[in-house]
Design goal:
This protein has eleven helices and 24 strands. This is Arrestin C-terminal-like domain-containing protein.
């Protein structure tokens, strides 16, 4: 009998290869009516679905693959041509435009298929148009993530005291090795600025410095097992780096025996050496690399490894520095602007919390993403002259405060394991998310109605009746893609802002412990602190306790200028720091004490 209906999906030409996260996805769904028998005009509608997911597989010992999927983004639109209210004509192609503003936090498309005998993973996106029981059309999209935040995240690795010994277990003395990176946010094709410092109090000669850039891939392929697949590879290696200022001199046995544990003095000398810039190495990254990514079942981790090569029979000291790789940040021309939050406005459920303008799509995206299935652009089926019928455009986006009358809704990144929620019915211009929650959008120009169904387990705070509470926020953050955006969005809501501006020190710290990307912890802490005049040393101390070890000094440097009681209570922060961290932050404490005043509210 043949198909009654043929579907196609067309995207704008410039989006048929790559789409930038945060961009507006523009396209058309076309429906060619081959036969109109049994097609009921009032019941005919097209479901347009877009989803992003992590998909993993693992080769089973007895054959076959175990697979696991995690869906982190889903939007479901119901498209209906206005003419279908009256009749459906045979031999006519109906065209229904749509636009979807993508979340800015979507990760890049990616895949690892190089060792399929063991397992593989994909981060992929798909558009699907379907009419239940009659027709279906699918096409893949390739998404490129937003640039890295325009914010430097330095890293200073605490010196490691390596006690050297030879194969005969003879004490050869010690080597203190320290390193710092000016910015752990490194874009593809950009330079890593690495600084080294070393004290060689040993009888072993430091022969050379080796620097390696390592990429580690982790993925889970079974929901019943905690076992993870792991692949590690060195993307590049500099085997003999010349660093003239390093202390490579060999000490005598008498010197080694006379060593005293004057750690504070050693730390001060090493820190001074690190900050002097004398032992600086610039390392240029390749232009084709994966993004650093921490998903639910897929993780991509990058770090820089520095090895000090000694004699063959002696231990080789080594340190590792975490890095966050992605699209190069769009640097502002002036100094970074402080976070400025407006006075708490009325609740604006349709307000765009990011307001980000998408950058131009790169002409040469990462080769690592090349194995993602290419986008298929479907041509509009041929139709007799005059038989092409266009529907009014349907927009799926997020209204800004400057455009309050546009009847549009947001395409939200929905974590699959966030709070469970019941079905909630919504009214015009108010967004609710939950399992199969429905939002009706009205076209005020012609009174047409389109239903946009958002399915999936959504953040509890996105529901109308969700309590404004720390438990709600923690559950959101534990399953989110971008915790910074969640906090920023909530700070636009007067009820949430009242809660977040009055966090106790323990609650302040517990929220930072929920931040899924440790590079973002100081950034999120500064955002939480920006709206309150009463940030105390207790808050900073709690933040330090809940921050990744390598980022603790960065947290202190970020929050100390906003701390109101440094003069009286800086010891609360110092007590949380070790000797090295106090050395690194000493100049920040001194500066804060010079400029600080005891606030009037302090008892």
């Amino acid at each position: 009998m043949g198909n009654q209906l043929t579907l196609g999906i067309q995207l704008e030409p410039e989006q048929q290869q790559w789409v930038k996260a945060g961009d507006v996805l523009r396209g058309k769904v076309v429906a060619f009516i081959n036969k109109h028998q049994n097609l009921q005009p009032r019941n005919l509608s097209i479901q347009l679905e877009m989803y992003g997911k992590e998909k993993t597989s693992k080769r089973q010992p007895k054959g076959g693959d175990a697979t696991l999927e995690y869906q982190f983004f889903f939007v479901n639109l119901q498209l209906r041509h206005p003419d279908w209210e009256r009749e459906i004509r045979q031999g006519v192609t109906y065209v229904m435009p749509f636009t979807i503003r993508l979340p800015t936090s979507l990760p890049s498309s990616d895949s690892f298929l190089e060792d399929s005998s063991v397992g593989s993973y994909r981060i992929q996106y798909k558009l699907r148009a379907r009419v239940a029981g009659k027709a279906k059309k699918e096409t893949y999209l390739r998404i490129q993530s937003q640039p890295l935040p325009d914010e430097r995240v330095p890293c200073i690795i605490q010196p490691t005291n390596y006690a050297l010994s030879s194969l005969r277990l003879v004490n050869r003395g010690r080597i203190l090795l320290a390193a710092r990176v000016e910015d752990t946010h490194v874009g593809r094709g950009e330079h890593i600025a690495l600084h080294l410092a070393c004290h060689n109090d040993s009888t072993a000669e430091l022969q050379r410095v080796k620097i390696s850039f390592v990429e580690e891939l982790y993925w889970t392929a079974t929901s019943t097992s905690a076992a993870r697949l792991h692949r590690s590879r060195t993307l590049f290696c500099l085997r003999d780096v010349t660093v003239p200022g390093l202390d490579k001199s060999v000490k005598t046995r008498e010197h080694v025996r006379s060593l005293t544990a004057n750690q504070e003095e050693s730390f001060h000398q090493l820190y001074t050496e690190l900050m002097s810039g004398r032992n600086k190495v610039l390392i240029k990254l390749p232009t084709q690399m994966r993004d650093t990514y921490r998903g639910r079942i897929v993780k991509v981790i990058h770090h820089l490894v520095i090895d000090m090569k000694t004699e063959k029979t002696v231990t080789n000291p080594s340190v590792s520095i975490p890095l966050r790789i992605g699209e190069p940040a769009v640097r502002s021309s002036g100094p970074p602007l402080p976070v400025v939050l407006p006075a708490a406005p009325p609740v604006q459920r349709h307000y765009n919390p990011t307001g980000a303008t998408a950058a131009a799509i790169p002409s040469a995206p990462s080769q690592a993403l090349a194995s993602v299935p290419p986008l298929e652009a479907t041509a509009i089926p041929s139709a007799p002259p005059g038989a092409l019928v266009f529907a009014p455009p349907l927009e799926v986006s997020l209204a800004t405060m400057e455009e309050p009358d546009i009847p549009i809704v947001e395409a939200i990144a929905i974590p699959a394991d966030a709070a469970f929620s019941n079905v909630v019915d919504a009214t015009d211009n108010v967004m609710y998310l939950g399992d199969d929650a429905v939002l009706v959008v009205s076209d005020h120009d012609n009174n047409d109605h389109f239903e946009a169904n958002f399915s999936g387990r959504a953040p509890l705070s996105a529901l109308e009746h969700s309590p404004v509470s720390l438990d709600t926020l923690r559950r959101e953050m534990m399953a989110s893609i971008n915790d910074y955006d969640i906090i920023l969005r909530h700070l636009q809501d007067s009820a949430w802002r009242q809660l977040l501006d009055n966090l106790s020190p323990d609650n302040f710290g517990s929220l930072l412990a929920c931040v899924n990307v440790d590079f973002d912890q100081p950034r999120v802490a500064y955002l939480l602190a920006s709206g309150r005049p009463n940030l105390t040393c207790e808050h900073v101390a709690a933040a330090v306790r809940n921050t990744a070890e390598w980022n603790r000094t960065g947290m202190v440097k970020k929050l100390l200028p906003r701390c109101a009681d440094v003069i009286r209570n800086d010891f609360l922060i110092r007590n949380e720091l070790n000797d090295w961290e106090r050395t690194v932050c000493e100049v920040d404490f001194a500066r804060a004490r010079e400029t600080g005043v005891v606030p009037a509210w302090y008892p």
